[in-house]
Amino acid sequence: MINLLLFPVIIPFFTAILLLFFKEQVRVQRVLTVIGLSAGIVSALALVSKVKQDGIQSLTLGSWPAPFGITMVSDMLSALLVTTTLIITLLIAIYSFSSIGVERERYFYYSAMLFMITGVNGAFTTGDIFNMFVFFEVLLIASYLLIVLGGEKRQLRESIKYILVNVISSAFFVITIAYLYSVVGTLNMADIGEKIASIGQPPILSVIGVLMMLVFGIKAGIFPLYFWMPGSYAAPPVPVLALFGALLTKVGVYAIMRIDTLFFVSDLAFTHTILLVLALLTIVAGCIGALAYFDLKQIIIYNILIAIGVILFGVAQMNEPGMQGAIFYLLHDMLIKGALFLLIGIIIFVTGTSNLREMGGLIKTHPTLGWMYLIAAFGLAGIPPLSGFAGKLLIIEGGFTQGHLFGTIIILASSLVVLLSVIRIFLYAFWGEPRPLKTTDRSVYRRMMVPAVLLVALSVVYGVGTEWIYPYVSDAARVLLDPDSYITAVLKE
Amino acid sequence: MELLMAIVAGLLFTAAIYLILSRSLIKVVLGTGLLSHGAHLFILTMGGLGGSAPPVLADGAGDFADPLPQALILTAIVISFGVTAFILVLAYRTYAVHETDDLSLMKGNDEHD
Predict the structure, then answer these.
(1) CA-based nearest residue in chain B for residue A135
(2) Contact B68 A181 (CB under 8 A)
(3) Measured between CB atoms, does A52 come within 8 Å of chain B?
(4) Are A126 and A73 in contact (CB under 8 A)?
(5) Would you list the domain boundaries of chain B?
(6) Is the pLDDT of residue B1 over 90?
(7) Contact A295 B113 (CB under 8 A)
(8) How confident is the model at residue B50, as a pLDDT?
(9) Which of A145, A305, A430, B11 is the most exposed place for a label (fewest CB within 10 A)?
(10) Any idea of the CA torsion for A108, A110, A113, A117, to the nearest 10 degrees?
């Protein structure tokens, strides 16, 4: 029983409510956002050290005994994800100060952002499957506001698609929970895990497993379910795109990781083979998209797909290196995608277009931007000692240990495609003949660079400091691979 | 009784899918409404409809209804109410800006490929 694990969820929530009272005072909103998110980061860091020291923390609200009340559980994976989420959001909020525009700020941009973080952190922390649905809805409704805020023609068109896809996937989520409840008669995730283990996963549960993969796959954007993503993500302004790209898809990935290690572990040959195949197809689809477009946003958006495929491939191995690699890569990808989206946002701001063919020679006028972009691009491709390397190495080790040679080779080949697709941006935008730029405010450019550079620096530290981060990641992987420790921590308190 | 409810839920899903596959924006929105109704009915049915006593624990009460699906359905109804309200406003705005409610005219592709 500890309340600490609720703080990263409720601090953004109360800050968001507070912001609603300061609609016209944009400055106050900015200050409060930074204070709220910083307080959230402090509490999340405290939570990480607490979980490191004392193991899994759980809290059942209303002092009900564990399977009956709504349980919040913080193991190392969720603590790390919550911390990363808050850090990225703080930097994106600072980036928004100079790029999102006062009009959007007045119409509850920061409130929506913080409500979304409430939902994201709640979904990472909850230990109750229906409560997860509720937190998904919290983050989705806030994201509906973020994607449509501004009301441009294109935004409206893409929002409709985004919302329809998500409403349908939410209906499926409710149906899946209904099936699950009728079979196991409980909603507490630890309890469900225990019950499924005791009845040995009859075929109906495998069907439910596939349905859940469908629900979370729509959120995460895995292979046959990603078609809504490139269009919808490209519509809102860049800070919103960065938030969505860095955080929202990862909630889906987290949920798949959780259910495939806690619930559906008795019939690996069925559920995890499906996951494996879908992960590889996602990578292939992402690679094709990343090479096909000459549009900055589209190239990086398709790179999200590749990363999701790589992470889920690691999860599907169900062995220690694979799982550690998946967690390493998940955190890395949140940081580096945030950084890349912020950087291409600056490129778009400077050139006034997202079309690669209309750019060139930026390295002469904006050298810092160029070198930062190159570091981030190398980090994404996983060039040692940058942050993508350790995760991918472990995932590949996991793949070979499990004997999935063909899949592992696809992962390795995809790294080259990733490198090619992001270096193409560097070649077209920064090299070549300088194109005439529209005059932009140099001080705005510098203010936009600060959070982007910080995020790149953070990802470099994450890569170079692998040795210090490894114990945390290995703790997280151990809990995932040993569901009994999770179940015991929740139920036997 | 469960069978009857399952058939009703199935009919709702059928109508919802028919509406969602149509081109008119407003029909699609109505379809999502029916879809969530179907899902709500379904969650109630899957919890089992047995039990005649109210779900209040008292000594000796054996035949009480399962309260949990009722709590779930309530939460889900509130959420889908909010989302439907939002999506209706959004559909109107989209109609006003794009001057069409035909989804096939909203394909659009602003990307540079």
Answers:
(1) B79
(2) yes
(3) no
(4) yes
(5) 2-50+63-101
(6) no
(7) yes
(8) 72
(9) B11
(10) -130
